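Supplementary Methods S3. Input chains for the assembly prediction are listed below.
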Amino acid sequence: MSFHSAQFFLFIGLVLVLHSFFSQKKQNRLLLAASYAFYGALDPRFLFLILFSTAVDFLVARKIHLADGMAKKRRYLGISLAVNLGILFLFKYLGFFISSLVGFSRMLGLGLPEPALHIIVPAALSFYTFKTLTYTIDVYRGQLEPTGNFFDYALYVSFFPQLLAGPIERAAHFLPQLHAPRSLSRDKMIQGSWLILWGLFKKAVVADNLALVVHDVFDGGGSVSGFHVLLATYAFSFQIYCDFSGYSDIARGIGKLLGFETPLNFDRPYLAANPVEFWQRWHITLSTWLRDYLFLPIAYAVMRHVEKPALKLKVEDWGYVIGITGTMLLAGLWHGAAWTFVVWGGYHGILIALHHLLVRRRKKRRSRSGFLRLAKAFVFFHLTALGWLIFRAHSLGQAWDFLRRIFVDFPPAAADIKMLFMPLFYCFILWGLESLGCSRDDPRSIPGWRYGLGPALVTALILLLIVFFAPASQDFIYARF
Amino acid sequence: MVPPSSPVSKAGKPVLRRLLVRSQWVVIPLLILVAVEYLLRKSDVAAPLWYARAEAIARRGRIDFAFVGSSKVAAAFIEKAFSVEMAKVRQRRIVSVNLGRGFSSPQLHYLGLRNLLRRYPESLKGVTLFAEAMSDAPLYQYHGNWKSIWFNRQPELLVPLLRFPDLLPFWRSKGTAWTDKFLVTAKFLLGSSKIVSNRERVRHEFEAQGQKMLYRVANLLLRLPPLPPEPRPVIQAIGGIMTDAKTMERAKKSARRYYQSLAASRRPILNRWDGSVLADIVRLIKRQGGEVFFVNLPAYSMELKAYATPNHERNKAIIREQFKKWGVALLTTDFSYADDDIPDYFHLKMSRAGEFSRKLAQAYCNHGNGARRAELPRSHPISRFTNGKWSNGIHRERKNLFLLDVARDASLPVRAGDRLKFAAAGEARVRNVHRVEQGSHSLVFVRVNRVLDPDADGHPHRVEIIVGE
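Predicted structure tokens for the full assembly:
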């Protein structure tokens, strides 16, 4: 049941109607039941795992809270980490590590046999594992008091709008909302409906149509020129943005209709002028998660252990560089069990580290030139696109081959120019609408909204959805992670 | 300060202003939608297709032959080639329509034919229907009842064929996912909008025009080498058939898979043909005085091989008996072909389709149908309309102009070029015909090449119609 399917809209319609009639306590139970129904509709077997993970972290968090002394607390946290990361490793990474090990052994001439593993990766595993980890770590750090209500906690873990692909909500932000009175105000209805419409447009019109171009090149199997690779790389850059941010917008829109505030996940990332800014705009909830739970602990640990810094770098720089590269490598691995993701993460880690080292040496001065900023954004967009090429490739070999083709086999045939039209059209429409301010939460803040632009925009989006709704609907990319 | 006469709302805004602000949410969307709808209706993009096209033809005149079936039918028959061949025998203009369509099902054809016959019974009186057969048997999907399986993988094809009374049985039917039922119903309810019903075509047209424009712009800027001429499609690109190289390759792969599964199939012998949708189609056509023929289509060797099983032989024997019961025949042409003539392993290539169509016309005539179907003269009463300028349905001044009354939904009884016979004036040829809707009926103004006498030729006399003889 995908967010852009007829079934989902019937489902959400039913949930909204029931939600509006129920009292607050019943609303929470309804949302829990709806979340499990939504998740169970994908595969009922997945429910056991999410229930197990939820139960373990609920109990462990209470134990941590009640434990006296850090040693005990640490032991309980260890249980939570072991269970959550163990589940993640078993279902998502075991196959990858075994096949990598077998591949490595073959390189060494040992030739270990490859066991036949048939492990189904449960949908949303990476997302809800991060949520459960957040909860226990925050309780351990004393930043959050654990909830005494199992159902509330289960709803936090499984809340269906965010379940498959985030945003990665913090318990400290979500749980209080369960106890505050929730009603559908006019403001929330307008904002929620707009976010859903805007997210649907990005997903069904832009992302799914660009996916056809990307699929032809990356999965087509035929010979492609550098022109095709470049086109598909640009197309994928916008596909993944619209796919993922479209999901986030729909999730946030549904959240608003249900009376919840969900954190922002995307803020026009391709306007970023450097890698740090990019990660402040791209998948914001993951970036902040990584910063709080991985980067800072690693960086501080490095700083504690480095006594004599080398290469004329300060202790803080060593902490930053090692922290960020380690974090981004793990972030890459979080996206999927493949070397392409690891390299992609490492690539971003290196970009951020290099940027840090370069900026550190310069005096801090803020450029006021719009043109310079635009040029930087242009250059950095291409660096990001290069990362997407690695991310989308089936293997590092394919990524290298495609990259090579851009430089050695570029010239397109005259007829290939025609291929540019539809991708250009979708990107142009996206750019135009984002420039108007369509990516804002409240559409009423778009200039001219009250003077005719509002109804014209809504009608145009609906017309675009009717005519350009992609013929082959694709699953959300991040729902696979 | 608000003038005392201006009503003010509780919020303090003048009511008129609030109304204006709110009404924009109705007016602007309506204006945009109506404008787009109007432009679309004016353009060629919304030109009728499939059964809508057949209805447009039936509105103008009669349909003599119709071909129904899958995309194989769409590819194999060239209407013009068949009609010209038949016209040689019948010595009059012949109208044939190819209703073959990819992913169509017999159930869909039943609904389409039902609508056609209900709306234009006169135009389809005595129509001959050619239905798809493969290796001496109808396709196995005919076995289903039209109430159980409504479409073949593409629910969108069902939408234009549905009528309101169909919705209830459709929702009651088994075998269709409720999501598909919901989708079909939603589209049916919005179906009168050309934007909704032609969204795929709008998109394709937009893409094609945009690509051309982009190429022209790029050419101006970069002086591109001239484009190689677009290759002529190998297969008739109608009925949803796609003929680009990639699709052809995909079709070949899926054909191989399909034929292998067909060869391995041990489907039980079909013996409940009386309750099948095929029986419904035969009854429908026969009620209208028409006839049904099954036509063996050219097939790829792998497909023919897949049918050469004992199971299929047993099926054929049962079907032969059924054909006898229904009084329908199986036509096989003497069209010779090779595997190369079926380039994507499914469809006959265009360069051979004309010949196949002609051969079918010959096979049909050889079956004893050529002369039998030459229309007998029909007659039609001349209108009794009389006023200052008209007398007994004939114009007093322009005496070669007369009137016929026909039902609003009925097709035109005469066409330009037809030969008519009047009670006194004798034979005349129709020069032009003009139809004017008048409430529940239509007035047909017919101009002929002969002067008519209101008393001797007009009402209550009848005019004999010797259509295009």
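Chain B touches chain A at residues 21, 24-25, 27-29, 32-33, 36, 179, 182-183, 186, 195-196, 199-200, 202-203, 206-207, 210-215, 218, 224-228 (CB under 8 Å). Residues 378-466 of chain B form one domain.
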